[in-house]
Amino acid sequence: KSANKAQLEKVKYINETEITGIYSSQHHIKDTIPFQQKNVVLIIMESIGSEYTALAKDNHSLTPFLDSLSNKSTQFTHAYANGKTSIKGIPAIVAGIPTLFDGSFTYSAYNANSFESIASLLKKKGYHTSFFHGGNNGTMGFDVFAKAAGFDHYYGRNEYPNAADYDGHWGIFDEPYFQFFKTKNNKEKKPFATCFFSLSSPHPYTLPEKYKNKFKGNSLAIGASIQYADYALAKFFETAKKADWYNNSIFIITADHTSMSKNERYQTDAGIYSIPLLIFDPTKSEGKMIEKTVQQIDILPTILQNLHYDLPYFAFGNAIDDINLSYAVSFNGQYYQLITDKYCLQFDGEKVIALFDLAKDYLMKKNLIKNSNVEYKKEETLLKAIIQTYNNCLIENKMTLH
Predict the structure, then answer these.
(1) Sign of the Cα pseudo-torsion (106, 131, 177, 51, in order)
(2) What is the pLDDT of residues 260-283, one digit of tens each?
(3) Which of 300, 86, 42 has the alpha carbon at shortest distance from 196?
(4) How far is residue 276's CA from residue 229's CA, in Å, rounded to a whole number?
């Protein structure tokens, strides 16, 4: 799969002696609170962009359960995917690895690199780890990636016991596979870290026969499928909350990428990456809304910070609690993009080609690059530091601290 794939090139925008003061991929949490052995339940909802949720603020949410759970969670209003496909989203979420080149990390020339993930890092603390995806085993290389990431077990369609729940296209319908996921968690040794990736949302938008009149969707072809996925998630929580592991767990719910859109806010170069992200702790009665820019690769460091993980580790993202670092990075095949709390900056590898003030111009109509009164050196330097660190770490196979 990786034969003839594009190769990264080393770049040197910034002196190595200066770069760590701008951006670092090395982390070590130091605080007085001991490590918390809570179960980690990471749920990735296929194709559920912010536009389909209450975050859109248009009274047309397709995800009533996710919205209700968000009200009890730490929710981020400006969360972004690091890519536009599942094969880019999974490494970003699970291992904190964005894909800042054409193709994907999984099928790239660097897929044999050593790297760290939520599984490999928590196994150092005695965790048992599993990855669940109801698709055909081998789909998009998820099973191979999960093994490389250090997961103890991979559960796909082959491991599911009831062939009658096959959707005829992708794999097992979300509702029964969520329940399979819950049952396996019930039997897992504690503590555990487990990842679930849903599959019922994409084309051809197949629904179980018994629900074909239940979900009406909206004007988008994907609408009813999103409603079904949200319903399946609700049914999972309905049964999971009765389990003995539930209250000692942290739930992280997000999406792998966005999908089709009818709202122009979500059709811009920034909006096409806008996804929900929430952290739910059943022992906390109140939620909170955080209005800062975060990204998929921040999920891994944030989980570790919530657990007060005390070992050094490598990650391209940053813990969300670090208020000094608030941005999202991506590459669309032509240019790199950095989204901050204020700007969206686009860089072609040599020069900045566009700059938009998202606070004033969320539809990105006015390119400020020729406005001499706008200062963006800080954002440009940060993006260059990220690209330089990323390229060099992948090329040199230096994606771990050991």
Answers:
(1) negative
(2) 999 999 999 999 999 999 999 999
(3) 42
(4) 14
